[in-house]
Every structure is written in C-alpha cells, then in structure tokens.
Records
---
Amino acid sequence: MKIVVLKFGGTSVGSVTKIKRVADIIANYRKKNFNVIVVSSAMSGVTNDLISKSKKICQNFSDSEHDVLVSSGEQVACSLIAGRLIHKGFKSRSWLAWQIPILTDGPHKHARINNLYKNKLIKYLKEGGIPIIAGFQGINSFGRVTTIGRGGSDASAIVLAKFFKAHRCIIYTDVEGVYTTDPNKLKKAKKIKVISYEEMLEMASLGAKVMQPVSIQDARLNRIDIEVKSTFLNKQGTLITKRSNIINNRIITGISSTHNDAKVSLLGVKDKPGVAASIFKPLSKNLINVDMVVQNISSNGKETDLTFTIKNEDLNKTKKIIKENKNINFRKLLFKKDVSKISIIGVGMITTPGVTFRMFQALANEKINIQVISTSEIKISVLIDTKDVKKALNVLHKEFKLER
Ligand code: ASP
Ligand code: MG
C-alpha cells in the first residue's frame, strides 16, 4: 500500500469554496492510486472563536471542557470534506480521535499522542475509503477528549505518517513553502526546495509560521519526509528531509531574524560558581524567556560582565527582578531596547571554513555594528539594532548567494 498523509491547515479549509478545492486535491491523489489519509484542522478562526466564548463563560474555564469545546472545530471541517468527497463519488468518512482511537497522555490542552490503533483504518483503506481524520485531538486513558496544543494538527499528521509508514506527509497551507528569509522583510527571499530537519528547527522564527516546531522534531526522529506546499497554487513546495538526502553545495540555507528584542548587561558581576544560576533562576520562575547569553572572561579573576537578550515587553519586569535579587552583586546594569538577532543557518557551514568571517565582513561593509555573537554547529547569530535588520538581511542574502 502506497500511503500519503495530506494535512490541511485552517486557511486551506477556511470556507466552503476552499473545502471544495481541498476535496479536488484529495481526489487527484486517489485517482493516482495512492491510499490517502487526510488530517484536517478547524476552519480558520474557529478555534480562536471557541476559546473566546469559553472565556466569556468564565476566566478559568475547565481544562477538560476546553478540550471538548475546541476540538469541535476539526469535527466540522472533517465532515464537510468527507461530504464533498462522497458527493464526488468517492468512499469517504470522517474519523474523530475517539473513533480510531488516538490515545494521548499528559494534561488537557497539552496532551501528547502516545498510541494509535491502526486496525479500523487499515480495513477502511483496503476497502478503498478515504479517511478524513480530525487533527489536534485525542482521548486519554479515562476516555476523555484531549487536545495536543495549538497548531497540533501538524503533529497529528506526523504521527499518522509514522504509524502507517507513509510514503510522504504533505502539509498543505496558505504559503508556497519555506523561504530563505521572511518575504515580508526581504522581497528577494526565495522558496527553498529542500531543507534538513535540523535547519528547519533552527529556522524556528521562519518555520514556526509554516509548521509547529514540535512536529518537525517528531518527523526528524522518525525520518518522515515532509513537503510543505500551497493549497491554492499548483507549485512545488519545500521538502523537509534528512541531511543525507540533500545534494546541493549551499553553505547557508536560510537567514532568520527576530524583532522586539532587548539586551540586558550586568557589569562587574562577582565571578564565582553559581552567579549565573542566581541571575537566571528568578527570571525563569517568572517565565521570562532568555535567548542569547554571553559572559566575558574575567580579566582580574574577580569580576565578569554578563549580557543576555529577552523580549522588549519583559524588560521592565526583568529590571525589577534583577534589582531586587539579593543573591547577586554587580556594579552596573545596562539595557537597550529594539535590538534584533540575525542568524544564518546551514549544515554547509560545518565543512566550510570562513563563514563567520564572511558574515562579519559583509555586515561591517554596511557599517552595521555587531553587539553580541553566538554560534552553534549550524548557526551563527549576531545581535544588531532593529533599524539595521533590512540592510543586514539584504547584504547577507547576497553574500551567501541565496538569490539563485
Ligand atoms: N485548530 C487548532 C488550532 O487552531 C489546531 C491546528 O490548527 O493545527 O490551534
Ligand atoms: Mg495551523
């Protein structure tokens, strides 16, 4: 059995007209003799709308009822798709998670799929049926309906692809694929043909809009090829796959950028074991997300400087927490709003010397000042002023020949 899993996002099933188009896409795969498993999200806006209704009932709406409520959006979309396929003469039906069942563990709202019973679906596929499965939902060991986190139907699709050893998992969405950088920030951004799981995960700031990051990690662990493509244009999308499948000589695959970051520096911090932990513990307790962290070497062995970045909106809270922290001593606290992290990402840099230099030189030529640097195996990040982001994306895109 050659199986494909097709997942349709909220905008793809956002109206009756769009659902008809989706049914045509599904029918085409069936005509090509694929066994098709479909996973759908709720029609766009529906999940948000249900959540806001629950908030009007009460501010702390029950988590278990929340899951029953919000999972209903997928039920609607699935029955509309199945209904259209039946109308077109195909054998199709909707499947809710409890009917399969798809089992989850963990808390309501953030459960994780841990098992899936294949038997009924296999039988149905063998009879030539097209199952339309509600994404985002499961049931727990008490038989209660659960949901697996916002954007979770991506994860549902990956799990189905894994259990059925699908030939491919195709994520149909409202963009054409993954781009070398955000096309809203740089017009010249190009659609990437193939990208590795690792690069895709590093490009979270770009990728998250296309696919839920947890589901990419799941696909990576299970070696499932994912294609991201547009529901509305019949064009090749982006293939997310394992590194060994990728034959190109690109050094850099993409450039990501953040916005609304702020930089905090503590000068003259006592250099002794445990200081960094004392600084970050209260921040993490207050759910402040710390991104880049750099500590200078201590020139006199007694004091050091420490810099990190957070989101602009967390700055006031962070300042207060640091000033009130009795467990740390420092000479001076500095901070700066409106900085951005620009990262170049590519597995090619592992084997290519000089990438760091090329990045820095390209930025220097544009007189862009680098404030913080951090690197990982396949990523080099720099912190610059937000006002320089466009210029930086432009020059780096050119330097690493991403326009091709
Ligand atoms: N409908 C759910 C949400 O909006 C799941 C999904 O779209 O993947 O989060
Ligand atoms: Mg989605």
Note: The chain has two domains: 3-174, 257-399.
---
Amino acid sequence: MSDDIPHDVHARYDALAKAVAAADIAYHQQDQPILSDAEYDAQRRALQALEAQWPGLKAPDSPGDKVGAPAAAGFAKVTHRVPMLSLGNIFAEAEIDEFVARVQRFLGFDAGAPLAFTAEPKIDGLSCALRYEHGVLVQAATRGDGAEGEDVTANVRTIAEIPQRLAGSAPEVLEVRGEIYMSRSDFAALNARQQQAQRPLFANPRNAAAGSLRQLDPAITATRPLHFFAYAWGEASALPATTQSGMVQAFGAYGFAINPLMALCADAAAMKARFAAIGAARPGLDYDIDGVVYKVDDLALQQRLGFVSRAPRWAVAHKFPAEQAVTQLRDIEIQVGRTGALTPVARLEPVNVGGVMVSNATLHNEDEIARKDIRIGDYVVVQRAGDVIPQIVEVVMARRLADAQPFAFPHICPACRSAALRELDENGEADAVRRCSAGLTCPAQAVERLKHFASRDAFDIEGLGDKQIEQFFADGLIRAPADIFTLAARDAAALKKLKDREGFGDLSVKNLFAAIDARRQVPLNRFLYALGLRHVGRTNARRLARHFGSIEAMLHTMRGDADIAMKEITAIDGLGEVVATSLQEFFAEAHNNEALDALLETVTPLPMEALISASPVAGKTVVFTGALERMTREEAKASAERLGARVAGSVSKKTDLVVAGPGAGSKRTQAEALGIEVISEDAWFARIEAGS
Ligand code: IVH
C-alpha cells in the first residue's frame, strides 16, 4: 500500500469494501439482501471511484471487480403442494400468556382448560421440504417464497443425515420438513479453509449453510458438512400420529435427527421454564438457534386453528433478545415512499450485529430523531431482532463529539422540491409523518408506486423488479402503470430496442414481455392492492373486491354520489371512514381516474365471483346465531370468509343463510319471516366440507 494515501481514505475504502463484500454474500449466497439495489449500486460505485482515484488502494480481491449481476437461475422451480409458512414472532415472556389466551379464545376453551404445547429450539438455518414416495426420497426443495422453492434434490442427496429411504413403514406419500444447518465448529473450519484458499468468508453458519446448499454443483455441497432437524411436514397420504410431539417422534423412527431439547409443556408456566432452559443451553450448543417455537400439540386443534395470512394460529416463535452493537452515524438520508412519506434512514459505519453486517437503520420519523437527540457523527447503539430492519436504540452520549451535527429535517421533498407537510388530524395534532405534497408528479413517489404495482402481492411481474423500474422510469419508458402493458408494442416500433441495452438480452426481454402478458388478467383484489391507495393493503383490497365483485361495480359506486359511496364503503365489514375517505380522495383526483382508465384499457381485473365460485358459500352473506358447539364465533367467521362468504352480525333482506345453534332467538325468527334459509351447525359443516 502506498504511504501517500490519506488515512481517512484508507478507512473509508476498507469500510466500503467490507460493506460491498457482505452485501454480495447476503445477496448471492443467502438470498437475503441487506442493502437495497440502489444502496448496493451506490456503494459499489463509490468503491470503484476511490480505486480509480487512488490506484495504490485497490485490494487484489476487491469486491468492486466482481460482477454485480444475480447468480444464474440454475435451479428448477418447485411449487409447494402445501405452502411453507412462516411464524409470527413474540419477544417478551408476557406474550406467551397472550398467545395461549388467544388460542384458547379461538377454540372457545375456558382459560384454565388443559391445552398442551410443544416447545423446541428455533434453528437458525434454512428450511427444506423432503418428499418421500413409498419411503424413498424423490424430491427436495427450498422454501423460496413459501409458495414456490428451488429443486435442490441432487444437493440434498449428499447430506448424510437425510435418509434416502425411510426406516419402518412410512405413509405412501410424506413430505418431511425441517431445517438444514451447519454446526458452529464446521462453520469455523470451513471459513479457515476459505481463508487459506483466499476465497470470501461466510458471515455466519446460516449463510454458509445456504451458500453450500445452493451450489449448482452438488459435488461442492458434498464437501460441506450439512445437518438436518425434522420438525414439520407438508403433504402426507396419512399421518403416523395425532399430535405434534408424536409426529416428531415418528420422524425419529424413520431415521431423521430430531432435536433433543424439544419438550411437551402443559401450560404457559411450563413454556416459560422451557424457554429459560433452552436459552441457558444455547451457548453450549454447536449450532445457532434464535428462539423457541411453541406449537399446539393436538393436531385436530391445529386444524381448527388454521392460519392467518402466512403464519399458523397454532404456533409462534419466541425470539431471543435483540443483539446490539455500537457504531458511528455517518449521515441521515431521506427516502421518499410511495405515499410521499419522508423517511429518515441512518447511514452507519458498517458494524457486525449478531453475525450480520449492518450499514443502514431506520429512524422512523423526525420526532424520533429529536426525541433521541440523534446527531450526525454520534456513536449509537444499533439493534436488530429477527428479520426486522435494524433500529437505533440510543445515542452513546458519553462519546458525543464536539462537532456532532443536529439534523435539520427537510421541509421540502428531496426528490421534487415540493413542500413536505405534516398533516393535522381531527384533533389538530400533527401527523408523525411528513409527506411530499406533490402526489404523482413527484418522481420518487411515482417510482415507488410503480415498484409496488409490479411487486409480488400486487401484479407480481417477474423480471420487472425495483432496478428495472428505476431504469425504465429514468429513461421515460414507464411513467405510469399502463405504460408497462404497452412496453412491448412500443419496443417493436422503437429504433433502440430493449434487448440492446446493458443488462438485457434477447431472452430476458422475451421473458419480461411474456411475464407482462401473463398479467393482463389479474384477480380484482390484486388489482386494487396494486393501485397503492392509502389504507388499502392486501386485506382491505380483498374486502373491497369481495364486496364489489367487479371493477365496474366499484367504479359505478365511487364515481357516483359521494354520500352513497361513503355509506356503502363504511358498511363493508372491517372497513371504516378512514378507508372510505382515502378512496374518495383517490377518485376525486382527475389524474388518478385517467391513469385508472388507461390501465383498464390494457388490463382486465377478474371478477371476484369467478375466483371463488367453486365454494358453495362464495358470495353469500351468512349470519351465525345461537350457541355454536363445534366452533367459536371467531372460528366460524374465519372459516366462512376463507370460503368467500361475507359474515354479517344481523339478519336483513341481504342475508342468504343463517346458521343457528341452540338458543337462537330473534335472528332466527326474523330470518324465517324473511324466508331466508336457516340451517344447523352440523348442516353448515356438511355443506362446506362437501363443497370445499
Ligand atoms: S415450524 C408452519 N419449527 O423458522 C410452521 N420452524 O419463522 C412451520 N424454523 O421457515 C415452521 N426452527 O425455517 C418451525 N423448530 C422449528 C423451527 C422453524 C426453525 C424456521 C423455519 C421457518 C421459520 C419461520
């Protein structure tokens, strides 16, 4: 290294090189980016600029030399026949009581009623689904997004701890699920080998396990010591047990490793004791765990409890306390979101927090910065817990530098220079969030909305990720959602073709156009969610879609009399004035209506009826009354809604069906008077089971 390079340039270069290398590992080997694409690009560019300016600085293995493109999509995709779900998290002991109470309430149990749970370590690896047919391993898949993973069969066959053939008599079809992980000692040995071979090091055992499993060449996986704990299952032609603990025992008998710390707990007190015991055992384990998972033991009860969005109601993950580290705050940057919210983001001197390099943290809003008196240049305590975005806990005041700069939160939007305002609520209190007032004319908002529009839960257009949208927007190719659907036609007529651009080619452009074409018809709920209206997330979009049934019906209402629209929206179960007002504000703007009409010329939202018409109660309005014996009210409502029914609290002319238990009174009489069908709870089950 040459001596004439200033010390601070060295320090900055080292920090940047580390940050880029860490981001590379996280992205390529772990599939869990720690930086957004834009942040990553900016850091790489900064690194390369320093290298250009100070040639003596450049390390022989500079991450600036590596190609930033994602790894080739070398694995075939596997659609999970039973989705691979995630778990809800809790962090405090008191939340165990809340979890138990919630389960009891849902099941209609008395608070003291016996209800057993299993408690087991949450292994910090990657989940994998192993499919056995006639006892023989036929397929292994990663979790992926839960709906679709990657086929890693060849690689999994190299893992000694995973049986190729099940011992004993297993069901004809059985998908065993569990966690693939690397032991701490094997991780240390692997990193030592990597270092010797001058190859990049892995940040932690999970990273190493993921990188080892996702090798395109199974011969490499075979050299990496991977382990597996079985703890769950997917498709099964029959189940060998009626309890969670019994299932795991059965996995043990088939030849799988099962975790020895798993225990059956009779109540919340026992769960707390188990949490403490597993926590105490943690430092002595040769594998990483990041919490304890509690599951209702009785499988029939699991079945009744079912799922909310992507997590089971019958299980929860109790995470160990967040890990913390101290680092310096370099700068505060303002990001402009899809609804114009100005969000401050802390740019940190990269620091290792519990095995992950952190260089950004959220600062929430301007009041938070003021409350914690956070100044640029301060040393701050950074914390990360589970998958949440790292946070700044507090400033280390003892280390405050004399020149630490208080942060002046901008009152104009950094993207478009329009005024950024804090709205007042009905009590005259300023909203915590400052928003750019320019709406869609603000480029940052427009780009963020487009990203949302194409994102997984919205239009889900493969190949049109954040990076591509930023590029297309900057080049003026896509300014509004409708432009996405005219892209192919315009490209055909253009002189400079997409396929000739950097980062594109014949095939990727063809795939992109095909992915866009595949979304010319989308379910109405996705369509509404994609519009990105304030307060209309996935759940509310589904409520609106279910209520209106078609976009035409919705437009008819929203573009008609405002009072009637207000009444209609607020009458929808689960929706109130906040959503109704947000919708009205959207439809009051001419440019929103124009953009929507332009979109509807190229895209057809599929009516809701078509989507759930297979269900016998789809689109029906159902009222439950009287004492229900086989399910609680909450359970009844959830099961009906899952099948596309609307559940109402009172009987009216709009009611299609009344499910009446013993002791049903006025609602039953009312229904009979109106000539509405009244059935028993048993008949309800017969009907939904027959049709679903
Ligand atoms: S049960 C339907 N048990 O945690 C519930 N998950 O946050 C299925 N994990 O994707 C998961 N140890 O990768 C379960 N003992 C354990 C686990 C465990 C680790 C992981 C798993 C899952 C994630 C959910």
Note: The chain has four domains: 7-66+322-399, 77-309, 523-606, 621-690.
---
Amino acid sequence: MNLSPLQKARYAYAPKLPGMLRAGVENIGVSEGKETNSVADCDKIRAKFPNTYGKKEITFVKGKNTAPAKKQVVGVILSGGQAPGGHNVVCGLYDALKAADKNNVLLGFKGGPDGLIYDKYIEFTDDYIDQYRNTGGFDIIGSGRTKLETPEQFAEVTKVCAKHGVTAIVIIGGDDSNTNAAVLAEYMAANNTGVQVIGCPKTIDGDLKNEDIEASFGFDTATKTYSELIGNIERDANSAKKYWHFIKVMGRSASHVALECALETQPNICLIGEEVAAKKMSLSQIADDIADSVAARSANGENFGVAIIPEGIVEFVPEFSKLIAEINELLAGEKTAQFNALPDWASKYEFIKNGLTAESLKVFDILPEEIGKQLFLERDPHGNVQVSLIESEKLFALLVADKLKARKAAGTFNGKFNTQHHFFGYEGRCAFPSNFDSDYCYSLGYNAFMLISYGYNGYLSKVSNISKPAEEWVAGGMPITKMMNMERRNGEDKPVIRKALVELDGKPFKYFEEHRKQWAVKTAFTYPGAIQYYGPAEVCDITTRTLALEKG
Ligand code: FBP
C-alpha cells in the first residue's frame, strides 16, 4: 500500500485514554451507581425489556480488576453511515481484549449487520489492525444499513454466535442501530444464550446524544472538515465579492451539523430545521428572510455571502412535508408505473395537479421546475421521495432569486445576486479522525471491552466529561433502555432511543440566535482552517463549539 506521510505519522499516534483506564486492564475496577429508568414511558419500556431494564449505571475506577477470568470471543460490526474514528473503536476494543488475555479473539463481521446474519467475518490480528490505526473510513470490515430487528434475524445471529463461541457482540452505530442492540441484548438474555451486547455511539449527524452520551463520535471531525471548506469558501467570497454561496451540509433528521458549522464560520445565513418546524415557517417566508440579508448586504455594497442549509431542511417545512406525503400517496404501488408512462412533463403535471390538494399544489407550483421534477424522479426502495437527494441548496437559491426579481420590479432592490451551490457530506465522513475523535473512539472501544469483561449486557459504552482534556474523561456504561421511549414508527408504537434534535432553548442555538442578525448583514466570517494533528493542544485537541457551549 502507498502511504502518505500523514498516514505513516498517524499510525504512530498513541490515542489518549481517560485517566482511569490508563493503568492497564488489570488495574481497572468498577463502581456501580443507581438503578436507572427510561427517559419516558417507563412501564412500557420495562415490559418490553424485562431482563435488561432498570440496570445500574457503571463507572470505571482505578483499582484492582475484579472481573471473572473468562476467555472472550467478541464479534464487532459497524452499522450505518461512515463516521471518522470507527477504526479506532475497533482498535481500542482489540487492544483491551488482547491486553486482558492474548488468547481472546476479536471477530469482525463484514458489511454491517448482514455479516452477523450470514456469518461473513474475519479474525483480527495485530498486522491487520495496525493498518487501520487512527485512519478514517469503515473499510476495515465495511458497514451496512440492514436493520437487525426481527426474531428470525436474531435466531440466525444466535446460531452464528454459537458456531464461533462468541461471548459478546459490539454494535457500533447510531440511534436506530443501538435501539436494535438493546432489543438483541434482551433477546440474548431472555434466551439464556450467554451472549452480551454492547453499543458504541456513532453518527456524524450528532443526533445520538443525551444527558449520558455527550456526543456521538465522528461529529467532531466531520464538522471540522465542513467548517474548513465553508471557511475557505467564505474567504473566496470575501475576496471575489461576486457570489452568494448556498452550501448544503449533511444531517438528515437534525440540524446539529449545520449549527456547529455556523458557530465555527459565522456565515450570513444558517437555517435550522428544528426552528423552521417550531415556527411553522413556509418556503416563502424562509426565502424572504434570506432575501432580506442579500438586500441589506447589497445596500452596503456587498453583493456576496454564504448560506448554510441542513440536508433535512425540507422535511421540517410543514407545507413541504405535507406535499411529500401526498406525493408518496400519489405514486403508491402501481401508480408509479402509470406516472412514468406518461409521455411528457405537461401530461405528468396534469396527473400531479389532479392528485394533490389545492394547498399542496400551491407549494408545488412555487418550486422551480427542476426541483419539482426531482420529487418524482428519486424514490427509495419503499417508494418514498428521497428527501436527502433534493437539491435544497439550489431550491433556496432559486426561491431567493425569485423574491429579489420581484423586489427589483418594485424598485426595492437594486443589487446583484449570482449564486454558487455546494453539498458537503461525503467529504467529511471518512476524513482522518481528529485527535479528539481518535482519542474518544479508542476510549469507547477499550471501554466496551471493560463492560464485556465485567459481564454487562445491553449497555452503551459511555465516555463523558469530554469537553475537558482526556485525562479527566470519565469511562463507564449506561443501560441503553435508560435512553429509550415509545415512538410511533411505521404505524406502530415502538421502543426507541430518543433522537436528539437541536434544542431551541439550548446554549448552542441561543448563542447563534444572539449573533445571527449581525452576521446576516455584516461580513463576520471566521476561517477555522484545516484540522491540525500535531502542535499545541489548544489547536489540535479541542472539540466542537457545540460541546463547549453546552458544557459552559
Ligand atoms: P448515520 O445516521 O447512519 O450515521 O448516517 C448519517 C448520514 O451521514 C446522513 O448525514 C446522511 O443523510 C446519510 O448518512 C447518507 O447515507 P447514505 O449515503 O447511505 O445515503
């Protein structure tokens, strides 16, 4: 393999563990805290998880390791979208497991949950693991989005575990994957398989967090990567002074990524989906707000700017999500083929016009034609519009252009509005993990093994106090059921980990809200630059503005 100088250097990086995990596995004791309850719907969650509900919170401490001696064969999977640091979770898990006993085995099941169901795996060795230390990506074993949730799947997984003598499974994933980890843990306990299940909190979207999990891994590196790019664009905009840049960033169901990038770069505009939903804003209102910023800046002679748009924004606009729901109905089942067979856009438009309510047709008619067509082109395997594929960065640029045209005609706008569009998502998901994510992920993996060795089941590996230097981090575990509540999913009430949306009364949003009026008019850009891996800790090891503000 050809290695870049940075890759060679990163192989040699020694991730920092929390203080209490530094003395070696034989010197890690455990302290059990209070019994736990789920965040809501306690009775219903308890009824669904009779074997794993209400367990105690765990903190590791410096002291004698009292875990029973046992040979461990651990299986690990990566689940869902890539997030920087996933490799280090596996490396931390491997190192702890081998430090406890050289005969312990780590199996990597390939391609996500499918690997566990269809028994596709590799056994990790030192040589194999060493190629992936402190690197981005999930290519060590691959990932997948199969949901591990049915009794049939669990039965297959149980067979695979029995075949290899697997004692524990580690699931590295987001809120849905860890919900499934909790269900699998309960199944394993109810069926006396002896297999433990431990989760690790992953997702660049940042929406797997709560009072116990301060951040999901990958959010730090991904947002730093996007912020570097946004800062570079801001500097270009401020140099050329001729374009408004509309930048969509990943983050499907929550706007944490957009908010963090805005805190890092101080753009003129940043939309926050949760606010749009709370204020029931319409597309037209949002476009008007952006047009106000364009006009105010133009009046100051600044015909340029930067707007950040979260990927999931359209789903937060009430009138738009209603339109999408109606389109999904309109094209359900056979009707897609009927629609596709229509010869031209005019006849397709007629079909649409007859199928939508007057209210939704009005919204559809506001959309630029190319975006309107996108709603009918891209369907997911369940026949739904793939909202994340809608080019919302273009949508808002076009809607703003329309507003400004009208203002020009009315004599209230006299400036220029030329746009560029960008989408930053995949650019950040496999970046070399920052020092923070390298350390945090390695710690999560190491800690996951400690939970296994002490016999815990249905826990999420928890490393907290992470806005402080790693020495002060606190390692432990939290029953996943503590993070759960009942939610309506596909027409059924299901126990799920509560997804963390941007809190409009939280400190990160409040800070943004206090400053955004000024940023909308003045050029107040900040340029974070590239992630630094070597140098002073205050440059290289600091984590996100979101976490800094949340932790005060
Ligand atoms: P996870 O929730 O699985 O971590 O993935 C998040 C994400 O990166 C989103 O930001 C994005 O919408 C999605 O994955 C894209 O995934 P895919 O490329 O599989 O469509």
Note: The chain is about 45% helix and 15% strand.
---
Amino acid sequence: MHVLIVGNGGREHALAWKIAQSPRVERVYVAPGNAGTAQLAVNVNLSPMDFTGLIDFARKNHIGLTVVGPEAPLAAGIVDAFQAAKLRIFGPSKAAAQLEGSKVFCKNLLRSADVPTADYHVFNDPIEAMGFVNERYGEEDELAPLVVKADGLAAGKGVIVCQRRDEVLEAIDRIAFHREFGDAGDQIVIEERLEGPEASVLAITDGRTILTLPAAQDHKPAYDLDRGPNTGGMGAYSPTPVVDDQRMRWIEEHVLVPTVHAMKRGRTPFRGVLYAGLMLTRQGPRVLEYNVRFGDPECQPILMRLQGDLVDVLEATVDGRLDEIDGLHWDPRPAVCVVMASEGYPGDYDKGHPIRGLDQAAELPDVKVFHAGTRMDNGQVVTDGGRVLGVTAMGDSIAQAKLQAYTAVKCIRWSGAWCRKDIADKAIG
Ligand code: AMP
Ligand code: GLY
C-alpha cells in the first residue's frame, strides 16, 4: 500500500517512521515533509491546505491511506474533501474537528456531556465580557484568576491565563479589539483558572471503540521550571506517573467515553485521535481543551514505544472496525523527547544554519532524532523552523531515558541551538 502523510513537523516524521515499518506499506509520501522524512519517504511539495492538489496526487499515486498530522487542514475539512473523492483518510470530519477548532463548541459539548471542565461563560460582545468581569471582580478585589480564550484556532496562542482583573480586561482587549488572533477572536470564552499538573491523554477512536494511549506530559513554556513564553511544546515524555492506572480508568470513564458518545449523539461522530489536555486538580481531572490529532511533541515518545503495526490501527479506525483490534502493545520502557530549537523561538528566528552531529546522535542506542523544522540544502541538513529537532530516547527508567536523550542532544550543534534542560524532571522528582 502507498500511504500519504500530511504535514511537516516532528509529529509527521514520527508518523512516517512508524508507518514505513509496516510490512504492508510499500511507499510513504509526506506533503510537504522535512529533511528527516526525506530519508525514509518521498517528500511532495504540496501544502497541507491544498486539498485539490493533495487529492489529485493521491489519485495519481494510488494512495491507499492518507494520515493528517496538523489541525488546520482538519478544521478546514480535508477529511470531507478526501471522502467525497472516495479516498481513505485518517482523521475527524470538519464538523467533528470543531472540538479543537472552536473552544465554544468544545465547552458546550463538555457541559452537555457532563464532562468535568472549568466553569465558563461565552461572549460575542467584548463590552459585555468586560462588564461581566467588572461586575464579578469589583474595584477593591483586584484578584481575578480567570483564563481568556479566543474561540478559534490560533496556533496554540489564543489562551491568556490571568491573575488580576486588569490582566483579564487587557486580554479581552487584545483578542477582541486588537484582533491579535484575527477571526479566531470573534467569540471569547472566559473560564475559571484551575491549578494542578497537566497531562495529555490521547486516544484513537472510530466513534464507537476507544483505544487509549499511555498518558504523556508536554512542556509548553519555553524555559526551565516552566518560565517564559508559551511554545508549541519544548519536550514530552510518556508514560507519566501523574496518570496511574486508576486515574486512567477514571479519565476513560468520565472524560473519553462521554465525549465520544456526545459527539455521536450530536451527529458529529468522531474518528481519529482524540487528545484530551487535562489539568489534574485537587477536585480531580478537568478537561482544559481537546485536540483532534496527535500532539507534537507527545507523538514522538508515544510512537517510539508503540509495538506492532500502526497502519492496522489507522485502517481499522477509518473503516469503523476498531473493535477488531486486539489492544495496543507498548515497550515497557519510558521515552523522553527533548526539542532543540532555533535562537529566538518562540519569537523571531532565522533559518538555514547547517546542523552537525546528527550521525553521531543516530549511532547511540535507543535514540531516534525526529526532524521538525529542517530541510536539505546542497546535501546538508539545515534549520528551517523554530522547533528544529525532537531528540527522543528510551531507557529503563524515565531518568535513564532523559539521560540518553540529553546525551544525544550533546552530539548535535548549530549556531544558536538551545533546549530546555529539565524535560521529564516533573516525573523524576
Ligand atoms: P489550551 O490551548 O486550552 O490547552 O490552553 C493552553 C494552556 O493554557 C494549557 O496547557 C494550560 O497551561 C493553560 N490553561 C488553559 N485553560 C486553563 C484553565 N482553565 N486554568 C488554568 N490554566 C489553563
Ligand atoms: N503539544 C501540544 C499540541 O500538540 O497541541
């Protein structure tokens, strides 16, 4: 079979790496891919948003399965477009992808399904939102532990966590009047600010059967000890001790199952990866958000541990027969992924720096260097994005996996390369 993967990040390199291992897969294409995917697949110079081009390519190259990495094409309806063209594709429909594409849709669904989440209010009118805040949090009480969210997709940036009333008002101003996130700010969600460790629980579902993957923890802030601006994710590890078996069963029962049922009842059945971003509060786990795809970088450590054929699982999901899959099997060893980034990220950065030491890193046991923002330039791998590499390693313990990942990181260098030094420390104590 020929498989097409849509996207160009570390997640897509990990997907291509895993899918290429399937004995049933003859050829893997990645659109547009990066220098890492080029080593095990054929890169296709098409944008993930060019549905016509992708469908045309899939037809001409006898693609038996397309797998979508990022959220933007899912929210724009790539799955519906492929299905209308009678092509098999893994991912949720446009209607189901609203779970990530619209925070209002997500919160309303959570409320109707009785899934635990932060209390919230939705506003179409920013003046009303400001009035609400001023009324609830009067002059003398400056504290207002609230989170202000732009409704639509904002590349992970449309969430502003606040502590004081003036911060909340400024957040509303930025979203609604300065339109920092464009149309995504047409509606605003204001919700209570929760506290606790965060965890990512991903599941594959065909709309009826749910296969839960081991929990992971992302590291969103740029710098050590969770300081600095938010990023797409500076590292991840899996499994995480903050979600033990008992808690995982609770999350399945109280979060995943009611969500999948509510999606079905609402005539937007969910097929694909359902990714719950959770906060583990003292009152129990609460859903912060849903994503409708593999997390990046969570995908890298998770897929490194997955045993068996991912393609069987993806196909069974597309065909609505996930109940035929006899569970998922995992390497018991934990995996840790450290993201190496360009100088300046998540702000402005430049590109094109030659990357050295990739071969030495690849020689280390239990290490896989997934590429994210890279491209080939005259036979040389150069930087081409903010998050450049996801250096991933397995070990007998989380501490050993971390050590091995950082041993590999030390082999790799380019001008301005940096990474967080504390990935997975939350699990090590
Ligand atoms: P989201 O994109 O909704 O996951 O939000 C991004 C980040 O904002 C999360 O990973 C949390 O760190 C933080 N966040 C979102 N909602 C809340 C909340 N209700 N309380 C506290 N922090 C939150
Ligand atoms: N790692 C967070 C995300 O993929 O959205």
Note: The domain at 2-94 is CATH 3.40.50.20 (Rossmann fold).
